[in-house]
Amino acid sequence: VQSGSERTLKEVYRRADPAGVIETATVLSRHNIPARFDLIAANPLESTEDHLATLDVLLDCPHPYRINPTNPLCFYFNSPITRMAKEKGIALRELDGVNGYLAEDDCDYEFWKVIFDFAQYPTLDRDFIRQLARDEYFKEHPELLHEFQAALQKSHWAEPGAFVSSKDLVN
Asked: Hey, CA dihedral for 45, 47, 53, 54, is it positive or negative?
């Protein structure tokens, strides 16, 4: 999932609208096939509103699903998205041993990584997650959200990466 933002998908990635993610997750859920999402964050071409659109897509997907660790956007040498970033004056730092760059400004990467992760927990209220996503204090202190995330993972999943809730094992 590169983004849930129609603007980002159209202007940056030149992809279809985000409804396909929800449709695919719905079909998988209907057939009892758990979905697993790979997400990209730390994209300096995205705004807070674009990140919120991604969160909304995740919150609209039926459970169960899991989110793999969210990765930062890698700008590969000579790719269209890299040229776009450079044209917009975005500072990039070259990665050692890799044919690419990361953005100098991480675009609140640690914050959004945790916020997106919260969407996979069906026990968390959607509006609560949206409130966290708009909270400037947590944006400046994502380490507090990391602690909450670790507690959620420990209490909710039977094992890291599993689709089985520890609550389901008790029944």
From this structure: positive
